[in-house]
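[Automated response] Your request has been received and processed.

Submitted sequence:
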Amino acid sequence: MRPSTLLVALALIITTLPLHPAPKAELWSFWNLHDNTNTATMDHALWQRVLSENVKVDEDQINRVNYGALIEGQGRLSLQRYIEQQTSLDPRKYNRQEQLAYWINLYNALTVELVLGYPHKASIMRMGEKFLSIGPWNDKVANVAGEKLSLNDIEHRILRPIWRDHRIHFAVNCASIGCPNLTQEAYLAENIDAALSAAEQQYINHSRGVSFNKRGQLHLSSIFDWYVSDFADSDKALLTYLSKHHETLSNRLRDYDKPINYDYNWDLNSQNPR
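Generated structure:
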């Protein structure tokens, strides 16, 4: 087979693979331990420094990351020190609120660090250790309490099954424009409930979460398709849920009875597009 023919064949294979197969929430029982008598807090100051210095709210209300500055400056050192600091802990020894903040912050920090390892890629979908990888979510990127973890492990085997909180989808960031924002504030146990609700409200009220086109067709983020069962048990119930949170489209969402279009922008959430 000629090289050009091989490249065409590989492109066809890649384009026919599912863009984002949604893993089920399946509990990894090893992590389902906590100590609610433990009042100790985890230190997220280094992660806060990275966020404060490198995440900018753009005019379109999408938070973008200065990956270039992180690679070239001291920010990456802070990021790596934070990841080392957090992965040296055993989160099972902490209370549930501390654990929740821990896993969300670690997921987001690992995602940023992962993107920095692919400085010429314009989408996280083009990153990953394997030749035909569509995204890096199954790559083992951390070792905590002696267990190797992927991003999928953290999101779908720890966060979703333990907390069963749909708002987690608005907090974990996949380094893409279509994703809920990487916040400028680290999640902390003391205010995480309010922070999750704020992230939920912000995304639903942004056009990449919910919008109508000029023909009156409803467009929703693919997150509401991939993980619909985390939000509602039917399309109608999903629209009812969204209507309760949308500040201007509540009635249109509640009364909508036509097909739903799902969209997602996988371009990198970078301040300097690659």
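Summary generated for your ticket: The CA atoms of residues 239 and 253 lie 6 Å apart. The chain has two domains: 22-189, 210-263.
If you did not submit this request, please reply to this message.
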